[in-house]
Amino acid sequence: MDESEIQERRRVRLSDAVDRIARGNAAEFGRMLGHRDGAFVRQMLSGHRAVSDKTVRQIEALRGMQDWFALPPVRIGEPGAWFDAGAGPVYMRVYPVELSVKEALRGYTVSESRNDEDAPIAFHRNWLVRRGYRVSDLLALRVAAPGMEPSLHPGDAAVIHVADTEPRDGQVFAVNYEGQVLLRRLLRDGGRWWMVQDNPDQARFSRKEYVEPAALLLGRLVFKQSEVI
Fold first, then answer.
1. Rounded CA gap, 158 and 80, in Å?
2. Higher-confidence residue: 195 or 129?
């Protein structure tokens, strides 16, 4: 088992531990480990920080958690779908974050969104496996502008798959456009790619041509969470 597989397995067990002894509250679990809040735990759950040997020892020192990470997940049902024999189905959490980008430069910086302390999006492992996603490749962003209405509304959580950055006709992507993070639908028209907003007021929300490096794809939208029905 290589290091990436070890970390994936540890994240699964960590997620279950948060559910078991902190009722899914990452902040409470973080305080059990001596941290101020849940940021450290959320970074591990999202794959942006490794679950270290020290953290494993800290968790296994908690009451009722002895040898927690030594317990193997059990594969049943469809190939690749993991279930935990003792604690039920595994859910992985994706917390809304903020992205910082620079004009014409690939890559981004992830920072915690302090306003979403208690608002993770939970994905059953089956959902991830069927689509070939790793939770470490998913980022949730809050929609801030009305340009993509009625598809996306301000306040919606848009989950992007950062490993998917090849243009696809008709798909919505997070885009670094001149140093801003935007959500836009890509359309192929006249042999060129265009970034289109779904809002019917096209006089205000007009399309722009997708040309690198002024525009760089950050990831494709694969899930949204909305309270607008």
1. 26
2. 195
Please tell me the number of Cα atoms within 13 Å of 99 on its side-chain side: 29
Alpha-carbon distances, residue 150 vs 63, 122, 184, 219, 229 (angstroms): 49, 24, 13, 21, 10
Could you tell me the pTM of the whole model?
0.65
Angle between helices 39-46 and 3-22 (to 10 degrees): 140
Tokens, residue 4: 């990436």
CA 161 from chain centre, in angstroms, equals: 7
Chain-centroid distance, C-alpha 184: 18
The candidate with the shortest Cα–Cα distance to 141, out of 69, 225, 21, is 225
Question: Which of left, alpha, beta for 103 (phi over 0: left; psi -120 to 50: alpha)?
Answer: beta
Among candidate residues 65, 125, 138, the one with its CA nearest the CA of residue 89: 125
Q: Which is higher by pLDDT, 72 or 136? A: 136
Q: What is the mean pLDDT of residues 22-49?
A: 88
Q: Is 33 left (phi over 0), alpha (psi -120 to 50) or beta?
A: alpha
pLDDT in tens, 209-223: 999 999 999 999 999
Mean pLDDT, range 82-95, rounded to an integer: 57
**Is the model's pLDDT at 190 over the cut of 80?**
yes
H helix and E strand count, the chain: 5, 14
